[in-house]
Amino acid sequence: MHAFSILTLGIFIAGYITARWDLVTRLYELAIFAWDHGVVTRATKGFAILSVFFFLLILPAERLAAHETILHPRVEGGVIMLGGHKLMRVFWPLDIIRTASTGVIVGWRNSDLDIVVVTVLEDVEARSVENALRIGTLFRGSPHPVGRIYQLCGKVSMQVLGTLNPSNPPPTTLFNSSHIFAFTNASSQPPRIHCPQDSAISVQIILFEKPHPTRMQFMSLNPMSLALDDKPGHAVNGSTALDSVDLEAEKERQRKSRLVEKIGLHTVVRHPPSEKELALPAILTQINCSFEMGALLRKNIGLVGVRPRRHLSVSERVVESATTMWDNAILGLTNSITIWLLPILIKVFIVFLVFHRAMAELILRVLEWRLRPEFAALKDISATAQQVDIRLQQFCYWPIQYLTLRSRKDDWESITDSHPDYIRFYNSLWLVANDVIIGIALGSYIIENAEWVAYQIDSILSSWTIEGLQRMISWLMFWPAGLKLNTELAAFLGDLFLWVIDYWAGCVANLRPLLPQVIYFIGFSSFAGASVPIALFSDLLSLLTLHIYSFYIASARIYNWQLTIIISLFHLFRGKKRNVLRNRIDSCDYDLDQLLLGTILFTLLFFLLPTVAVFYLTFASARMIIISLKAALDTLLACLNHFPLFALMLRVKDSKRLPGGIRFELYDTQTASTSLRQESNMPRTSYIRLKSVPLSLRAMFQQYFQLGHRLRKHYLAPHVSFCLVTGRFVPPIHRRNLYSLQYSMLPATRASIAEVWKRLTERPAKATRVRVSQGNINSRRGYKESAIF
Amino acid sequence: MLNVPVRLSIRRPSPTTVSYTVSNAPSRTSFSAQATFYVTIILRVLLAISALAVAVAKFTQVSGAQKVPGAQILFESTSLGTFSDGIATRFSWKIVFPAVAAIIYAVVQKGYTEESLLVIRGLGIQTSTSSSTYLSTAATRFIPTNEIRDIFIHEAFKGFEVRFYLAVVVRGEEDVVVVFPNLLPKRRMLEDLGSRHASQSAGISNVP
């Protein structure tokens, strides 16, 4: 009892005795009377008889019962209960396992036996800390409202959880879950929770490392997504985008979900989720917040209790004044700049941004304009237009993204919602910078050697697409490889194609003097990034091989027609015909002249087929080569536009910033706690280490895998080879599907000009407010350092 | 695939946390087995070092680059250096580099698989599969308890045999998560594991 209350009680009793002296004398007389008449001895005798009875009967019965309970544990519904064991779960940060000093454990209490330790406050009393937490003294000077953290952490508040290394030993029998006693020592032994053997509690200590919020580390149950998921039903919105591959995937998904439903019917025992199981997401948030909250509590600890404080030595004072003087000078300089120069610069910059945004809007409108809704827009046809479209959309999105990232500063650093945004923003910035750097190198090379590059391109193009093709056709015209084709038909087809090639060669010869200028233009365009010349080259390739495309289409039509005619004449030859109404082959009685003419035509066409097939094969293979060349260029573009470079660098530098889930590691308790088990009555404690799993490389390149899968499904399908063999047109994969990869980091709809203007102009007010409320240079400098990466 | 006997080991520091590990690694309990294990480790390291030395020697010979002074002394004075120099001069780079790559690949191979299931009451279960090399870490998957819909033992065809497997149905996922996916221990072992564990979670049911 407190000394003061003892004194008060003493004074009260003394006063009462003096006031009621007659009552005291009466009591004294009563005591004398009782002693004289043997009351005391009779009471003692009764007590002794009761004790003997207790020792002889009750105690043995109790021992027997206890022994029997140990021998035969209670069985309930076929499931052996763990002797009524309850589970105490303690999340313990790794940075407070090596202290030997006494302190108060502060943290979150999610339920009675489920706690998360945030920090240990030293040299204070538990009660005063509890008071301070309730009043809010410990949260004084917090940069942002504490309520926000509480709201995120499952609406529980911080509490005093217990005592670390208590100075007087805790009661040996009683376990109090609302105030635990933990022990740590200077060696690297894990912490030990005082928990008596007979309290029927088993302890799980989950050790975790606090994620550093300033370094933007965090833990997450699910892998973080690098793509922007704001495209609801991307595959559903247009029926054109939904091709057979998507349909097939959708069907497969439905089949699987039906199977999963069926598995659900087999479930025998359903157990409702316990409070502890549901608390896991909230606990991860608490762990994410623990660093910042712990720092705040430790900063305010001086407000709570007496704390030994050492005065600064002279040298330290000199150092301190020197540093603050330097800081003051910097502060003065920055103040003058921020007050006079910065507002003007910001205004100019905003006007420039909005002007830029308006220009971008104009160009984007042109690129997206369709004559009719089902027609292709310019960006669907040309790689260059698409490249420009992607860049402009990125430029439009950056201010919005940057403002979102800036608003991060108005909140706790532990809040992890915008971290994927941060990675996306800097990834796209970095990719554009890389693109420009590579582009400058490429562009300067092309400009310096424009003549040579133009000459090379011209010679390659003419030797392959004109002279090579001419040689090939002339070879086909005169019995290629000893194959006796129909001379007349081969000569006719060959002459036809040769005339067109001659005409095309004339056109290209007219364009030849322009080629160095075109190359110059490509070279200059590459200062806007290496992706532009690649896209331009891809477009140039499709333009200069236009004749091959038209040859392919023409020969494919002829081949297909001939094949169809042969098939229907073959039915005639067999005495059958195709019934279109029932979609089947019926028997048919032909007249003799019909049969005769049909058979003659069939024979004729059949013998002419190899000649046409040879020409078709030539142009189809040329077309396929060009398509694969363009696919290679497109892959290069995809790499330049979308490669997760920043994420990869982060993975190497600090993998905790890219969480891909969590992982638990069971500590080998044979080594960890045998010594502890001997020295105290440690019941059953398991030590588990909670770690963050870095995002796997597969998850980073998820979209590339998706793209590869889609391409494989589309082009390596039996359907495509069937089309090729029969000369039908191979349906190209829709460009929107193919390039959904490149747009995956951009929002589906861009913000309008008015919205950009509104958000940009409201920014300065917010920024100044932040500056006033923060006022702490050091913390902001820390942020800047972290912002470099 | 060779049918190596699979062992199950259980670690259970407290009644609420159990780790079941299935492994086809040879048992290392006896002294001689342990000694062999450490000797092979040392041999592997030596083999890797000599392979790398040969690669470095060949690279300097091919590229004609000047060796770093320290490395020069190392290559000339030690027997390993002269040995690797000798090998590098005898064979062409077309043989040396693929051979070195193959040796390094063989050296880092573990040669066994270890798969484990960690059950933590109140948190969830975690499956993990050790990687095939010494260089990378195990692939783990943690499933919180409230995402588990069911756990069952079922049978499936694999090649020409029927294997039993323990699988977890995860809420909101199409595919079940197979525990011990590579080793696929025998049915007796799985049932044993299930009945042992029945004291803790009532979630395992045997679907015929």
Automatic annotation (TrEMBL), chain A:
InterPro entries assigned: PigQ/GPI1
Keyword Transmembrane helix in record: yes
Q: Which residues cross the membrane?
A: 337-355, 429-447, 489-511, 518-537, 549-573, 594-619
A GO biological process held by the record: GPI anchor biosynthetic process
Q: Cellular component GO terms, alphabetically?
A: endoplasmic reticulum; membrane
- Output the PANTHER family linked to this UniProt entry: PHOSPHATIDYLINOSITOL N-ACETYLGLUCOSAMINYLTRANSFERASE SUBUNIT Q, PHOSPHATIDYLINOSITOL N-ACETYLGLUCOSAMINYLTRANSFERASE SUBUNIT Q-RELATED
Protein name in UniProt: N-acetylglucosaminyl transferase component Gpi1
**A Pfam family in this protein?**
Gpi1
Annotated GO molecular function terms are: transferase activity
Q: Which UniProt keywords apply?
A: Membrane, Transferase, Transmembrane, Transmembrane helix
TrEMBL record, chain B:
Listed InterPro entries: PIG-H, PIGH-H_dom
Membrane-spanning segments: 35-57
Q: Name one GO biological process term.
A: GPI anchor biosynthetic process
Pathway-wise, it operates in: Glycolipid biosynthesis; glycosylphosphatidylinositol-anchor biosynthesis
Q: Where is the Phosphatidylinositol N-acetylglucosaminyltransferase subunit H conserved domain?
A: 116-181
**Keywords on record:** Membrane, Transmembrane, Transmembrane helix
- What is the name listed in the Swiss-Prot or TrEMBL entry for this protein? Phosphatidylinositol N-acetylglucosaminyltransferase subunit H conserved domain-containing protein
* Organism encoding this protein: Xylona heveae (strain CBS 132557 / TC161)
The UniProt record lists the keyword Heme: no
Family label: Belongs to the PIGH family.
Per the record, GO CC terms? glycosylphosphatidylinositol-N-acetylglucosaminyltransferase (GPI-GnT) complex
A Pfam cross-reference name: PIG-H
